[in-house]
Amino acid sequence: MRLIDGYDAALFDLDGVLYLGPQPVPGAVAALQALDAEEIRVLYVTNNAAREARVVIDQLRSLGYSADDHNVLTSAQVAAAGLAEQLPAGATVLCAGSPNLAGLLERAGFEVVYSAADKPVAVIQGYHPKMDWRVLDEVCLAIQAGARWYATNDDASRPTDRGLVPGVGGAVSVVRLVVGGEPIVFGKPHQPMLREAMRRAAATRPIFVGDRLDTDISGANGVGIDSLLVFTGAHGKEDLVQASPEQRPTHIGAGVSALLAPVRPLSLSADRAECRGQVVTADQGRAVLAGPVPPGAEEQLDVLWAVAQLAWVQPELDCRALLESLTLVR
Question: Domain 3-47+189-260: which CATH class?
Answer without folding.
Answer: alpha beta
